[in-house]
Amino acid sequence: MITYRTIVGPTIFILFLFFGVITFGQESVIKPAIHKSIQQQTNKIFDDLVKIRRDFHMNPEVSEQEKRTAQKIKEYLLSIGLEVKTGIGGNGVVGILKGAKEGKKIAWRADIDAMPSEIPDVVDFKSKTEGVRHICGHDVHATIALGIANVLASQKDQLKGTVYFIFQPSEENYKGAQAMIEDGLFDIINPEEIYAAHIAPLPATMISTKPEWLFADYKVIEVSYKNSGDDDAMIEYTKTLLKSFQNVELGSKFFDPQSLLNPAIGLANPNTIFKDYTTVYDNFNVKKTEDLISIKTYVGSSIFNELDRILPQVKQKIKSSKYSTSLVNVSYSGDRVNLMNDKKLTNKAMNAISTVYGSQSVIRLYGEMPDGRGDDFSYFQERVPGVYFFLGGSNFEKGIISMPHAPNFAIDESCIKTGVNYFSSMIVERLDQ
Ligand SMILES: [Zn+2]
Ligand SMILES: [Zn+2]
User: Fold this and answer.
1) Could you report the per-residue pLDDT of 237-265, keeping only the tens digit for each?
2) 78, 13, 65, 53: which is closest to 138 by C-alpha?
3) CA-CA distance, 127 to 9, in Å (whole number)?
4) Of 147, 186, 304, 308, whose CB is crowded by the most CB atoms within 10 A?
5) What distance in angstroms lies between residue 241's CA and the mean position of ligand 2's atoms?
6) What is the number of the ligand closest to the CA of 173?
7) What pLDDT was estimated at residue 229?
8) Cα–Cα distance between 379 and 382 in angstroms, integer?
9) What span, in angstroms and rounded, lies between the C-alpha atoms of 191 and 141?
10) DSSP string of 370-382?
11) Is 146 exposed, middle or buried (0-12, 13-18, 19+ CB in 10 A)?
12) What domains lie within the chain, and their CATH numbers?
């Protein structure tokens, strides 16, 4: 999923480069030697990983049909000695890697599905399935997870604890995480922490994230009335009422896409303007039937639980207006659980990567992206504290911009190396704490 709709353009991450680099208090690395071994093993398997990624890319499968992909994942995991469970929540696969010593249990999740897309692919290893394309980078996510599994399996004797690899189907239709959970995923595995990453238009040497929300929360609000014939004033009243919940000024810098990259007010600045905001879409959808009038629009907020507070307020205001007797209902639809990064784990995970790979590798965000939709990884985070990262896949000098779902979406495959290195090291550091 992870699309940035109207106001987040593909270039927004570029300028993070120049102002977003964090400077953590550096913690000492617990096991410097193992990180060296991790990097050596990653280098050793990199060419194979690229082949695997291209094979996934050429054989994309849409949500709920990831049979071949799941089979390939299973074969690979078995070949490196993991215990494997298949058919969880459809085509879900789980690999279990037990370290030599007892310890913590950590899960890494990768989504594996492709998307229907008629847009011609921009790489030589094009999709062989007409109308289906890996345009969201899940081919890379699956490959990185296999790479981490391989690298950590190669360090099995040093590992303290268990690592679970969750290969989740059906992310694009937002069903796979819930399906795996309902199918008993957490009866099979019991992770104490869970992590995932999604390709984003950052340089392929970087990751970024923040504690708690990465995206504002969005819902569709619908106000419905009995159709009494004379309703223009009522519709106008309702639009004005809903718009009154917006706390950012129309025409202000908030609505200028360039502001997201602005060093002084953008997402990566602690004083960002993309904090504590609520927005209400202007383009209301008004539908009339013989009996009912329905007025719908999007409401978004970066303030925790704000949408839950808005609904009863709308209801109450209409009830104390002259339209009280016409009101039928005020409700939300299109409910999605927003991603929620665990505060402590986010800081610890960012610290671990920053300590091993340098502070220039990690960009801390402060604001929540407006107008975005997340990832159903949020359903796992409801059960297990975890962190969702953005992983850079771009190479601006080569003109490769890894903006998910964009027609020219492409990946600098060196991000596979970055992902395998950074996240293998992060998992090892987390197992040790
Ligand atoms: Zn997507
Ligand atoms: Zn995606």
Assistant:
1) 999 999 999 999 999 999 987 787 688 99
2) 53
3) 26
4) 147
5) 35
6) 1
7) 76
8) 5
9) 20
10) TTB---THHHHHH
11) buried
12) 16-214+338-431 (3.40.630.10), 217-333 (3.30.70)
